[in-house]
Amino acid sequence: AALAGYLAGAGIELTGASGLTITLDALAINLEQLGKGDLSTLAMDLNAGVDRLDAVLAETGERVSIENATLGVRTPGVARGVRVKAGNKFTLDGSPAGRIDADLTATDLLDPSGAPAQGLPSNVRGRIALGGVRTAALGAFVPLPALDLPADIGPVLNAEATLTPRADAHTGIALTITSEHLNGTGALAIGADGLTGGDDALVLELARVGPLLERVLNTPDAPGAIEAKTPGRVSLRAANLALPLDPASLKTDGR
User: Fold this and answer.
1) Of 164, 182, 170, whose CA–CA distance to 127 is shortest?
2) Contact 202, 235 (CB under 8 A)
3) Burial, 229: exposed, middle or buried (Cβ in 10 Å; 0-12, 13-18, 19+)?
4) Nearest to 26 by CA among 80, 85, 75, 84
5) Are 126 and 103 a contacting pair, CB within 8 Å?
6) Most confident of 59-68, 96-105, 227-236, 245-254
7) First-residue to last-residue Cα distance in the chain
8) Consecutive H or E run containing 33
9) Paired residues of 84 in beta bridges
10) 3-class DSSP state of 179
11) C-alpha atoms less than 13 angstroms from C-alpha of 184 in its C-beta half-sphere
């Protein structure tokens, strides 16, 4: 019910689910330490999966399915680190729409007393990848009516984030984004002070901006005010980024 409510708020109506499995292959903990709020000895091997989730996008009526979704959480003891693996593939109206895979290991999650450390995790290693994502499936999540994702960005999007611990108590994040008309790279870092980036924090190049400008700038009163003679190209660069984050909500704190 909670999942259905969350999805409904995002404009997604959950219509069916099948093949839910949850297995706890190992669990060990010192109850005396747990009673004191010390999680350092918690060890477990948890695996969950869903064969299929079916939903309908409220805005377009398109059917979306998530298949073979898996989640694994393994730790020999939280004080030694936690590994999380996840993966699934999507379909849109019965056709393949991409997949997501993640494999992350985090350490230094606890303070000296064994309680969860304050701030965002700063020692994370691994990768998150989106592969072969049909941009038509993303339209419901992008509140820009003038943006035609398949035409402006390309029909298929690939993205990957590689996370590597740094010596300065931050996790470096290397981003790559590729599609027919949009390509980008990012070099970011996340730590207790939030999200930061240097001279090349985020670099994006859009190779087909003309038709997008026509749709944005032309109005019903002046439908032909702007006419793009060529596809056009635009490059965007975000430098010296400093975005404080509230660890409790993972939202900007407004500073």
Assistant:
1) 164
2) no
3) exposed
4) 75
5) yes
6) 96-105
7) 35
8) helix 31-35
9) 73, 104
10) strand
11) 23
| 41-50, 144-153, 179-188, 225-234: least confidently modelled range | 225-234
Q: Measure the CA–CA gap between 171 and 86, rounded to whole angstroms.
A: 20
Q: For residue range 10-40, list pLDDT tens digits in order.
A: 677 888 889 999 999 999 999 999 999 999 9
> Can you give the length of the chain in residues?
255
Mean pLDDT, residues 137-155 taken together: 80
- With H, G, I as helix, E, B as strand and everything else as coil, classify residue 66: strand
Alpha-carbon dihedral sign for residues 147, 152, 156, 160: negative
Residue type, 111: D
What's the token pair of residue 254?
């407004």
Count of beta carbons in the 10 Å neighbourhood of residue 97? 22
Tokens of 48: 């969950």
Chain centroid to CA 91: how far?
18
Asked if residue 138 has pLDDT above 70, the reply is: yes
Looking at the DSSP bridge assignments, the partners of residue 80 are none
Average pLDDT over residues 121-144: 85
Span of 101-110, 147-156, 176-185, 216-225 with lowest mean pLDDT: 216-225
List helix spans (H) across 68-122: none
